[in-house]
Amino acid sequence: MHEKKTILTGDRPTGKLHLGHYVGSLAARVRLQEKNRQFVMLADAQALTDHADQPDKIRQSILEVALDYLAVGIDPCKTTIFIQSMVPALPEIMLYFLNLITWNRLKHNPTVKLEIQQKGYGEEVPAGFMTYPVSQAADIAAFKADIVPVGDDQLPMIEQCRELVQKFNRMYKTQALVEPIAVLSNVARLPGIDGKAKMSKSLNNAIYLSDTADEVSKKVRGMYTDPNHLRVEDPGKVEGNPVFTYLDAFATDPAKVLELKEHYQRGGLGDSVVKKYLLEVLQAFLEPIRHKRSLLSQDPAGVWKMLFKGSETASLVAGSTLAEIKASMGIDYKVSC
Ligand code: TRP
Predict the structure, then answer these.
(1) What's the pLDDT score for residue 187?
(2) Distance between CA atoms of 280 and 96, rounded to whole angstroms?
(3) Contact present, 248 and 240 (Cβ < 8 Å)
C-alpha cells in the first residue's frame, strides 16, 4: 500500500515561472499532492539572502509565482502553499542549527561556492547567503519532510540537512527530527529556446506560463534548431534540437512526434513545419493555464488570503516541531518553585 509521505518543496520568488519549471517541478507537485501531505514554500527570506535591496521585487514575485502554481493545478485544498517569512519558527530552528555546523563546512558547499563565484561576491559574501543552506535545513526539518523533490543543484542542501538532523538527534538524544531523502525532479531538463542547456530569465531564453499567445508564437518562430539543417531537403538532427525536446515534453500524440522525427532525419521536412506543430502543441497546453491565471489575477486579495491561510497552517506544524526541538534541548523553560 502507498504510504502517505510528507513532501516539502520551495521556490525563491524572484520572477514568474516558465516551462522549464513546469517540466522540472510543477508537474510533479500536481501529481504528488494527490496521495501525500505536501507543502510548497515561497522562500522569500531565502530570496532576500541575495536580493536584500529588492524586497519589492520579491513581494511582487510572490503573487506571480502563486498565480503560476494555482494556474497549473497546485490545489490549495490538497497542498499547503505558504510564505517562508510568515512562519516564525523557521528562523528560530535555524538559529539552533547554526551551532551544529562549522563555518568550514559551509564554505565547502559546492552550490554555494558556485553561486558566490557567479555573483562575484569574493570575500564579501553576505552572512545570510553563506548560511542559507542552514535556513533550508530548518525549513525541511520543521515540516519533518520525508521527501524533498529537487534539482541536482540542490543535492548539497539536502545532504547538509541530513547531517544537521543526524547531529541534532544524536547530540540531544532524541528521534524528534526526520532525515529527508532527496528525489531528483529535473531528470528531463528543458533547454532554452536558444538551445542552451537551461531555460532562465537571465539568459532571456524562456517561455513563461503567463506569456501571451503572441509572445509564445514569436518565441517558437525564433527557436534554435539544427544549425546545419540549411535546406529543407537536408537531413536534420533531432538530438539537441530543442524543438523536438519540447515536443517530447508537451505533445500528446507521440506517434506523430516519432513520424516528424523520422521525416526530419531523412530530410525533406522544414523547420517551419515542425515549429508550426510545436506552436499548436504549446498553445493547447498553455491556453487553459493562461485562462485560469488571468481569472485568478483579477482577485489578488483572494490569492494573498489563500497564502495567509497556508502560512497559518504551516506555522502550526513548524511551531510544534520547534516546541519538540526546545524540549529535546531542555530549553523549554517553565516556572517551577
Ligand atoms: N533553494 C531552493 C531553490 O533555490 C528553494 C528552497 C528553499 C527549497 N527552501 C527549500 C527547496 C526547502 C526545497 C526545500 O530552488
Answers:
(1) 58
(2) 53
(3) no
User: ∠ CA 161-41-132 to the nearest 5 degrees?
Assistant: 40
Q: Where are the domains of the chain?
A: 6-190+300-329, 213-295
Question: Looking at domain 6-190+300-329, which CATH architecture does it have?
Answer: 3-Layer(aba) Sandwich (3.40)
Q: Is the CB of 7 under 6 A from ligand 1?
A: no
Q: How far is the CA of 12 from the centre of ligand 1 (A)?
A: 7
Burial of 214 (C-beta count, 10 Å sphere; 0-12/13-18/19+): exposed
The ranges of the chain with pLDDT < 50 are none
Helical ranges in 2-54 per DSSP H: 19-21, 27-32, 44-48
Q: Which CATH number is associated with domain 213-295?
A: 1.10.240.10
pLDDT score of 58: 98
| Residue 136 Cβ < 6 Å to ligand 1 | yes
**Cα Rg of the chain, angstroms:** 22
Residues contacting residue 155 through CB under 8 Å, at least 6 positions apart = 182, 184
For residue 152, the model assigns a pLDDT of: 85
Its pTM stands at 0.95
Q: What digits encode the pLDDT tens for the residues 268-280?
A: 999 999 999 999 9
Instruction: Give the strand pairing for 79-83 and 147-150.
Output: unpaired
Q: Which atom of ligand 1 is nearest to the CA of 46?
A: 7
Alpha helices in the chain (DSSP H): 19-21, 27-32, 44-48, 55-72, 89-97, 103-107, 110-119, 127-130, 132-142, 155-171, 213-221, 242-250, 254-266, 271-296, 300-329
The per-residue pLDDT for 294 is 97
d(C-alpha 272, C-alpha 275), whole Å: 5
